Amino acid sequence: MKQFTKTTLALFAMSILISFTGMVQAQSKQDIEKALEPFPKAAEGMVRHVIQLGKKSDESMYKVEIIPGKVMSVDCNHHSLMGNLEEKDLQGWGYNYYEFTSNGQTRSTMMACNKPNENKFVMGQTILIRYNSKLPIVVYAPQGYEIKYRIWKAGKNQSSALK
Q1: In this structure, are strands 106-108 and 95-101 parallel, antiparallel, or unpaired?
Q2: Cα 15 to the chain's mean position, in Å?
Q3: d(Cα 163, Cα 161) in Å, to the nearest integer?
């Protein structure tokens, strides 16, 4: 009887936890949608990518690197995607968003390769921006392109410049 009560109680607690988790996820999705209202819809042929950052205790110690790119079949050379990542102002709101444009051309080193082509993520121009968990980072890119990001953290040590 005790085992049955414990099992029932555990199942009840798990169901409450699962429903609470679902409410939190739905709430955060609603919050994201509300935060995206001022941003323009993606133009035809473009996709809106949204990066939602987690809260940090001291966000001034962090930066976010936005990395646009595309998976392409490339040889053993080092390739980079030609394109432009531009910061734009959301008029009347004081927010920024970013737009990546590219025609898909790449540049590369010119080493002789004796291996077959591989599918790899080819990066375009990156940009480093301040970390701000209160606003989403919105990036528009052509269809078929990806937006990745990397979080950078400053070290505790500071150095003085030479005089």
Answers
A1: unpaired
A2: 32
A3: 6
Statement to judge: residues 44 and 70 lie in one domain:
yes
Q: Which residue has the tokens 């990518």?
A: 49
The C-alpha atoms of residue 108 and residue 86 are separated, in whole angstroms, by: 23
Distance of alpha carbon 126 from alpha carbon 69, whole angstroms: 9
SS3 call for 35: helix
- For residues 59 and 134, state if they share a domain: yes
* Number of domains the chain is built from: 2
160 within a domain of the structure (yes/no)? no
Three-class HEC string of 109-154: CCCCCCCCCEEEEEECCCEEEECCCCCCEEEEEECCCEEEEEEEEC
Q: Domain residues for 116? A: 40-153
Spatial contact of 84 and 126, defined as CB atoms under 8 Å apart: no
The answer to whether 62 touches 154, Cβ cutoff 8 Å, is: yes
49-73 per-position pLDDT tens digit: 999 999 999 999 999 999 999 999 9
pTM tops 0.85: no
**pLDDT per residue as tens digits for the range 135-152:** 999 999 999 999 999 999
